[in-house]
C-alpha cells in the first residue's frame, strides 16, 4: 500500500506552487482594479495559463490527499481482517492440534458420568458396563511451546451469560454437545437447569438452559447442512438449498460438523435423489456432493453472519476405527477390546493417514469472508482407538467404533474449544 501513498515532499511542493499563484487579498478592495485585472487577464495568455495552473495544482493536492486517506483506510481494513484470520490455529503461533501426545493425568476424568443428567444411552459407556477405566484418564498434551488451560466451567457460563450457543450437525456434534453439558454441570452442580423438550428428544433440536446464568445451549440435528426435501418423486437432497439455516440465526456461538452421512448408501441413506439447480440425479460422487454442499453452507455464512458478532467454529472430521490396518494392526481388527491410545505425536504419523475430505473442509473455510475457527480434532482423535463405546451403548448402535464415550474423548474437544473461546492457547 506504501507505493500508492504520495511522498510528503510532493504534497508540500504542490501547496507551495499553489500559494505562489494566489492573488493578494487587497486587490479585491477596488472595483476598478478588479475590472482592470480581469480585462488584462482576458488579453494576457501567459497569466491565463498561470491561472489554470493554480486550479490544476489545487485539484491535484485534493486528489493526492484523498488517495492517502483511502490507502490508509484500506491498510486498516486489511490489518483487521488479518487479525480476525489469526483466530484460526493454522495462522496462530501455537497450534494445539497438530502435534502432541496423550498423557495419563490422575485428575481426570473431569466429572463422574454417573452424576450427569444429560448423557444419552448410546454414549454412556460406564452405565452399560464398560469395565476398564484407563480411557478416562488421558489428557491431550500439545507439543511445546503449546499448552492447554484447565477447563473453568463457571467462567465459561459467566462469559456466555445472556447468550445462545448452538451445535449444528450429526451425532458427532451431539457427542460434543452432551460432553459440554456434563462439564458445565460438574462445574456448577447446584445451578438450575431445564431441558426442552423435557424428554431430550431431538426433533430437530433440543435445548438445555442453565437458568441461574441465563445461558442457552442448543443441539440442532442436520446430517448434510443442506436441505433434504420430501417431494412427490421421493426424498431429494438439494445441494444448493439451505432453508433450514434460518433456525441458526440469532445464535452467539455456532459449532458445525459434517461429512459422516455422505458415504452412506442402502437402507440408512435418508434421500432418494440429489438435485443441484434444475439437474436431478440418482447419485453422484459423494465427495463432490459434500464439496458442493459445504460451499452452499459457506455462502450462507458469508451472506448472513459477516456483519454479526456471531462466533463460528467447525469441527474437524471425527475418525472411526473399523480397520485395524489404520493403526498398524491386522485388517480384521476393530476398536473392540482396545484399551490404549495409538503411540504417535506428529500429525501424519498415524498409519491410516489423513482423511481426504479434511483438506476440502480446510480449503472452503480458508476461502470465506467470515472468520471460522477450525477445531482440528482429527489427528488427536485418530490416536484414540480405545475411546469408542464399542458394545457398551445399550445395543443402540451395535459395535460402535464411530461415536465416543461420555465421559471421554469429547471432553478434550471441549477443553480445546474452551481454549479457542478464551484465547488461552
TrEMBL record:
Residues of the Trichome birefringence-like N-terminal domain: 93-143
Domain Trichome birefringence-like C-terminal, first and last residues per copy: 149-419
Organism: Leersia perrieri
Sorted UniProt keywords: Disulfide bond, Glycoprotein, Golgi apparatus, Membrane, Signal-anchor, Transferase, Transmembrane, Transmembrane helix
Protein name, as recorded: Uncharacterized protein
GO molecular function list: xylan O-acetyltransferase activity
Superkingdom assignment: Eukaryota
Transmembrane segments: 53-78
Subcellular location(s) per record: Golgi apparatus membrane
Membrane topology: Single-pass type II membrane protein
A Pfam family that the UniProt record links to this protein: PMR5N
Family: Belongs to the PC-esterase family. TBL subfamily.
GO cellular component assignments: Golgi membrane
Amino acid at each position: 500500500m506504501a507505493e500508492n501513498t504520495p511522498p510528503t515532499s510532493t504534497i508540500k511542493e504542490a501547496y507551495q506552487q499553489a500559494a505562489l499563484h494566489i492573488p493578494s487579498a487587497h486587490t479585491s478592495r477596488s472595483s476598478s482594479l478588479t475590472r482592470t485585472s480581469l480585462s488584462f487577464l482576458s488579453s494576457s495568455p501567459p497569466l491565463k495559463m498561470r491561472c489554470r495552473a493554480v486550479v490544476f495544482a489545487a485539484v491535484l493536492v485534493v486528489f493526492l490527499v484523498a488517495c492517502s486517506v483511502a490507502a490508509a483506510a484500506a491498510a486498516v481494513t486489511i490489518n483487521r481482517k488479518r487479525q480476525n484470520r489469526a483466530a484460526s490455529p493454522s495462522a496462530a503461533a501455537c497450534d494445539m492440534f497438530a502435534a502432541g501426545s496423550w498423557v495419563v493425568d490422575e485428575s481426570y476424568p473431569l466429572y463422574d458420568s454417573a452424576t450427569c443428567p444429560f448423557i444419552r444411552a448410546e454414549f454412556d459407556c460406564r452405565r452399560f458396563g464398560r469395565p476398564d477405566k484407563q480411557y478416562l484418564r488421558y489428557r491431550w498434551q500439545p507439543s511445546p511451546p503449546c499448552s492447554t488451560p484447565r477447563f473453568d466451567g463457571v467462567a465459561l457460563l459467566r462469559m456466555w451469560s445472556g447468550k445462545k450457543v448452538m451445535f449444528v450437525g450429526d451425532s458427532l456434534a451431539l457427542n460434543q454437545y452432551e460432553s459440554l453439558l456434563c462439564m458445565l454441570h460438574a462445574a456448577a452442580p447446584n445451578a438450575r437447569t431445564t431441558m426442552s423438550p423435557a424428554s431430550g428428544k431431538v426433533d430437530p433440536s433440543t435445548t438445555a438452559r442453565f437458568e441461574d446464568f441465563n445461558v442457552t445451549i442448543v443441539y440442532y440435528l442436520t446430517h448434510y447442512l443442506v436441505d433434504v426435501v420430501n417431494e412427490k418423486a421421493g426424498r431429494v437432497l438439494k445441494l444448493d438449498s439451505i432453508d433450514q439455516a434460518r433456525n441458526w440465526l440469532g445464535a452467539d456461538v455456532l459449532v458445525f460438523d459434517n461429512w459422516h452421512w455422505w458415504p452412506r448408501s442402502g437402507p440408512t441413506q435418508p434421500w432418494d435423489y440429489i438435485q443441484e439447480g434444475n439437474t436431478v440425479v440418482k447419485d453422484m460422487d459423494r465427495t463432490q456432493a459434500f464439496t458442493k454442499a459445504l460451499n452452499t453452507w459457506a455462502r450462507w455464512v458469508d451472506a448472513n453472519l459477516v456483519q454479526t458478532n456471531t462466533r463460528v467454529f467447525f469441527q474437524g472430521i471425527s475418525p472411526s476405527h473399523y480397520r485395524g490396518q489404520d493403526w498398524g494392526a491386522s485388517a480384521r481388527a476393530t476398536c473392540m477390546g482396545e484399551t490404549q491410545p495409538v503411540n504417535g505425536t506428529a500429525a501424519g504419523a498415524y498409519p491410516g493417514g489423513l482423511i481426504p475430505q479434511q483438506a476440502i473442509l480446510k480449503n472452503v473455510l480458508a476461502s470465506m469472508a467470515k472468520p471460522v475457527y477450525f477445531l482440528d480434532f482429527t489427528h488427536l482423535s485418530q490416536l484414540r482407538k480405545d475411546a469408542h463405546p464399542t458394545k457398551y451403548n445399550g445395543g443402540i448402535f451395535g459395535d460402535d467404533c464411530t461415536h465416543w464415550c461420555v465421559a471421554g474423548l469429547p471432553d478434550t474437544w471441549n477443553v480445546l474449544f474452551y481454549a479457542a473461546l478464551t484465547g488461552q492457547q
